[in-house]
Amino acid sequence: xxxxxxxxxxxxxxxxxxxxxxELAGLRKEDADTKVDSSSEVSExxxxxxxxxxxxxxxxxxxxLLNKITLALERLENGSYETCLSCGGVIPxxxxxxxxxxxxxxxxxxxxxxxxxxx
Length: 119
Prior knowledge:
By secondary structure, the protein is mostly helical. 71% of the residues lie in helices and 0% in strands.
């Protein structure tokens, strides 16, 4: 990877991390501001609980992505950014451009997804 490419990926990852951190802070504030009043109608309480569950799931997903971005930045710093964490092969530039936080080459990612889904 050239220094110019490295700089480009660092900027992409840092920007993505900043946006995600801001979004995560907003979700946490939104969740804290959501109050379920015991005197509310059952349907209103159910809707609020469903919204809260959605926000928690989104928070969880954002936190996981934030962790992946941090790890990608660490790999960028130590020179292993393009290396698949599973097989040690090279992650193609097109894949890194499509998803800068990725840590696996496509064949390893597919194998992981298949084993996770029980196929």
